[in-house]
């Protein structure tokens, strides 16, 4: 597919170095970059047609799954595969995949690390899905990060993961999983950590549209961006829930130095980072 031609057909099409944007798009790899066509610009039939064309031009190096879960998530089945337990979808986005990457070995490695799983499959050449039910072992985000880092070393890639919620396998399941996919695609380029869950990204995802429309928030954000140190200061205090001692250790500075910076911030902006409501407001300005 040619970018110029697509741009003429869909004027809102963008060419970006990022695989995901802050809106849901149909994306196509193009000369080491990505062509993004906003979903709102496409009809359902156009989306389906572009999907078929994309399958023709992209290398079929990754194994295409014919499993029931894959068919369900792609909309080929109206109801989920029969199960009596709640379902969770974990999404993995892989970067720096080369021609030596072995998809089959990766899938088998994921099956072993996350056992038990209902299914593991790729929906695109860089996005892997893991479907599990409530019999799955419970790992912390730190443990999952360690597991992925081990795989990264073995496969010479980089990855990000979104650990979904457990949902009841009813008629709403597909819509819930689709929304989780949209959330991850829009937030993956903004993640501070390698592994995230809904609580990690909810604040930014569900407030960004309202924030972008607010003149007040735009002006406050401009004030904060006048100093690079303030973004780091707010991030550290937010992650430590306002605990000055913990935040100072994170920043590798003395507690008194941190207190001094907080006072300077208050003088310049009129906002106190010692107050949790005001700290929340400041955090919204930097996410």
Written account of the structure:
It is globular, with a radius of gyration of 22 Å. It has twelve helices and eight strands. The chain is 49% helix and 17% strand. It has helices spanning 3-9, 44-57, 68-73, 103-114, 141-155, 173-187, 198-213, 215-224, 228-239, 244-251, 255-269, 276-286, and strands at 14-16, 25-30, 33-38, 87-95, 119-124, 127-133, 158-167, 195-197. With 287 residues, it is of the alpha+beta class. The two termini are 34 Å apart. It has three domains: 3-57, no CATH class; 68-197, Alpha-Beta Plaits (2-Layer Sandwich); 214-286, Orthogonal Bundle (Arc Repressor Mutant, subunit A).
What is the element layout, followed by pairings?
Elements: H1 3-9, E1 14-16, E2 25-30, E3 33-38, H2 44-57, H3 68-73, E4 87-95, H4 103-114, E5 119-124, E6 127-133, H5 141-155, E7 158-167, H6 173-187, E8 195-197, H7 198-213, H8 215-224, H9 228-239, H10 244-251, H11 255-269, H12 276-286
Helix pairs in contact: 6-7, 9-10, 9-12, 10-11
Brief overview, please?
The protein has about 290 residues and is α+β, with helices and mostly antiparallel strands. It has twelve helices and eight strands.
How is the main sheet built?
5 strands, mixed
Q: What's the helix-strand series?
A: HEEEHHEHEEHEHEHHHHHH
CATH class of the largest domain: Alpha Beta
CATH superfamily annotation of the largest domain? Lrp/AsnC effector binding domain/regulation of amino acid metabolism (RAM) domain
Helical residues, percent? 40-55%
Domains, number: 3
Strand content: 15-25%
Domain PucR C-terminal helix-turn-helix: 232-284
Protein name: PucR-like helix-turn-helix protein
Organism: Alkalibacterium olivapovliticus
Pfam family, one: HTH_30
